[in-house]
Amino acid sequence: MKGIEAPRARAGDDPREFVLLCRPQVLKLDDGSPSPGVVAQAFLLGGDALAPVTVPSGEFSFRAFDARSEETIQSWTFSDSEVTEHHIDHSLGACYAFWLPLEPSRAPVRQLVVYGRFALEGQEVGSKPVRVAVPGR
């Protein structure tokens, strides 16, 4: 039995949608202390089939809000020169993975809403908000 073939975008297709997946994680720092944060996986979809596209450059930015108060908790930006470092080949297609560490001073927030944005040459595409439980809080 053959597997289902995932749709593929053509080279040069512009991203039209941003799908964001987030999961909480605690990393151990070199000194053994815990560092809570969020792993963000970004899929940029384009082409007629809305399939994952690979981009050679652009800027990814993420913003986390307190799920209760909607106050901005923290922001992260990954510049044009960093995009290729975050590219991974996922079973679903091209993906970009980011570690979003949370500053310790942001306690006692327990639920975050994370929003992602990708910008390239004056065009932007944003994700839907994703709710994440903050680890280690």
How is the secondary structure organized here?
Layout: E1 15-28, E2 34-46, E3 51-52, E4 59-66, E5 72-78, E6 87-90, E7 93-101, E8 111-120, E9 123-126, E10 130-133
Antiparallel strand pairs: 1-2, 2-3, 2-7, 4-5, 4-8, 6-7, 8-9, 8-10
Describe the structure.
Helix content is about 0%, strand content about 55%. With about 140 residues, it is an all-beta fold. Strands 1, 2, 3, 6 and 7 form a 5-stranded antiparallel β-sheet that branches. Strand 1 and strand 2 (about 35-45) form a beta hairpin. The radius of gyration is 16 Å and the shape is globular. It starts with 14 loop residues before the first strand and ends with a strand.
Brief write-up:
By secondary structure, this protein is an all-beta fold.
